[in-house]
Write a structure and sequence with these properties.
The protein is mostly helical. 74% of the residues lie in helices and 0% in strands.
Length: 274
């Protein structure tokens, strides 16, 4: 029979081995992408797994083929505006669903959650027709409008609002604050971790959005970084070194946002579970 100390030690070793293996699986795609960015297209095709000497050549090729400032401006504008509008609308809706009582509130909320089961593929044609009739095809507004009212983010904010102290709202009402003042000056500062977590989620989804921009953005001067990299990869003779350099560059903003806000992200996700 093993002693309790030996059993605990073996359990810890197994846990760390499992976590190390899962961490490696998570990091490996980015590591392979970074290694491929330093190699030639032939080396990438041959599966070379060591760093090469073609990094500057690939970077030069990417900046030569792509109008990087314009593409990044398009992507950043869509991602930031979409994120801000989504957070504003979703937090207001989540706050309203939790704070205001009515007979039909739960029915409306449940109906809204049912929309999560509708695949986006079923919505593409109706959305395209609506955007076409509104004259928004080939505009960034057409990319942003379908995502700013997110049923998932409304659900997330409502769950987080359950942890918001109702005493604060009651005390604010006694002090004479109106509902919009309670939301803006009390709710938003208290729930800042929830906003930070939601910002990371929505920003990453908006930055990496591919299918809907592919449908509605038709000219080169409106395209985002995901569309540009896709077009490079689907060329008749794709330069995979250049493609991987573009992929690394496109990944950096989302990594930066996550690492800058990871503490608030964890706090916000824990708050939503409570």
């Amino acid at each position: 029979m093993l002693s309790d100390r030996t059993t605990a030690l073996l359990s810890s070793i197994a846990t760390y081995l499992l976590l190390g293996f899962v961490s490696f699986l998570s990091v490996f795609p980015f590591l392979w992408m970074a290694i491929g960015a330093t190699n030639t297209s032939i080396d990438v095709i041959n599966g070379k797994s060591t760093f090469g000497s073609a990094l500057m050549t690939n970077i030069t090729g990417f900046f030569t083929q792509v109008d990087v400032p314009l593409v990044f401006w398009n992507t950043a504008k869509i991602a930031i505006v979409s994120t801000i509008l989504t957070l504003a609308i979703s937090s207001l809706a989540g706050y309203g669903f939790e704070m205001f009582r009515s007979r039909v509130r739960e029915r409306i909320y449940q109906f809204m959650l049912l929309t999560l089961f509708i695949p986006f593929a079923a919505l593409m044609i109706p959305l395209f027709i609506i955007m076409g009739r509104a004259g928004l095809i080939n505009t960034h507004i057409a990319v942003m409008l379908p995502v700013i009212a997110s049923a998932f983010m409304i659900f997330y904010f409502r769950q987080s609002t359950k942890a918001f102290p109702s005493e604060l709202r009651d005390a604010a009402k006694v002090d004479g604050l109106k509902e919009w003042q309670i939301f803006l000056f009390i709710y938003v500062p208290v729930m800042r971790s929830t906003y930070a977590a939601a910002f990371i989620i929505v920003f990453m989804l908006s930055w990496n959005n591919y299918l809907w921009p592919l449908i509605v953005l038709q000219s080169n001067d409106t395209k985002t970084i995901t569309l540009v990299i896709s077009s490079l990869a689907s060329a008749y003779y794709p330069d995979y070194g250049v493609v991987l350099v573009g992929t690394v560059i496109a990944t950096l903003p989302t990594l930066l946002v996550f690492f800058l806000m990871q503490k608030q992200f964890v706090q916000g996700m824990l708050g939503s579970v409570k």
